[in-house]
Amino acid sequence: MPLVEHLRELRNRLAKGLLAVAAVTIVALVYSEELMQFLTRSVPTCAPDVSSNGGNCAIVSFNTLMAPFSTTIQLSLTAGLVVASPIWLYQLWAFVAPGLHKSEKKYTYAFVGAAVPLFSAGAYLAYLILPISVKVLISLTPEGSANILSLGDVLDFTLRMVLVFGLAFELPLVLVMLNLTGVLTGRRMAGWWRGVIMGVFVFGAIITPTTDPIGMIALAGPITVLYFAAVGFSLLNDRRRRRGNPDAELDDDEASALDLRPEPVAAVEPVAASRALPEQATGEHSGTSPHRVNGYDDIT
CA angle at residue 22 from 16 to 26, to 5 degrees? Predict the structure, then answer.
């Protein structure tokens, strides 16, 4: 296909993706108030007759004149990108897929099919942990101080938590894909288990600032289970690969094992000596003694 045709197809694919994002964004603008209430549900807001004092509750507000407009636009665009992601991701895939091999397409289908449920599970877990994290953070407010939170900051914190949890659940999938492409072996991943578990629990403690271990375990526990599941899958895949090719796990600069055992030598077969010259063969066929020159059979 000529370059101009590629550029024309790219333009059409981008236009379709942008139209889908714009359509969802317009719908999100209509329901922006409901979206804000849904995302700020984790914040313990004060009742109309209760004032914020210490860590009992918080007041969600807009701090600047342009804050309601900018927050609404930001939230609607984010919703448009997320909800319309199947459409613009498909347009991107339709543009790239003709240049991929059959095996590469197979890996891509498997990656997307596993990445979407894992990211969704991580995002849902983050939404469940958010009320606990927000309550603990608000409880640190000293007495006599009021919690007046910016709605934009609350939405940023919520979206950041959802994104971090979703991407954290993709770690085992990345390890599996590295194993399938031959970059990492299951034995090497299994050797990292101490450091991985330590890092996962430290990450869970930082990202879920609660005084009890429930939030940390709620994040680190599933990731640890998924990590060991990825290690088990990689070990099975390495065994299957070795069965088909014993040298599959060797590095490019590593020599394969050589069989240095000596092979058995067969019995020596008798070979009749042939006469190189006709003068040497006269005695064999005629029954007479061979022609001798100076006492030697060879005339040379």
Answer: 150
Query: Tens of pLDDT along the chain (300 residues)?
Result: 677 887 888 889 899 989 999 999 999 999 988 888 888 888 888 877 777 777 778 888 888 888 889 889 988 998 888 888 888 888 887 787 777 777 777 777 777 788 888 888 888 888 888 888 788 778 878 887 888 888 888 888 888 888 888 888 888 888 888 888 778 888 888 888 889 899 888 888 877 665 567 777 877 888 899 899 999 988 998 888 878 766 655 555 656 566 677 778 777 777 766 655 555 555 544 455 555 555 555 555
Q: Kind and range of the H or E element at 93?
A: helix 85-96
Q: How far apart are CA 257 and CA 237, in angstroms?
A: 21
Residues forming a β-bridge with 58: 45
Return d(Cα 171, Cα 5) in angstroms, integer: 38
Q: What is d(CA 23, CA 70) in angstroms, rounded to the nearest whole number?
A: 19
Each as own residue / partner, the long-range contacts of residues 2-10 (CB below 8 Å, 24 or more positions apart, any chain) are 9/95, 10/95
Place of tokens 């927000």: 134
* Displacement of CA 182 from its chain's centroid (Å): 13
Taking the model in full, what pTM does it have? 0.66
Backbone angles phi, psi at 130, to 5 degrees: -55, -45
Tokens of 49: 């007759």
Give CA–CA dist 228/186, Å, rounded. Answer: 10
Instruction: Select from 155, 156, 137, 157 the least CA-distant residue to 147.
Output: 137
Which residues on adjacent β-strands are paired with residue 45? 58
User: Tokens 């939170």, residue?
Assistant: 149
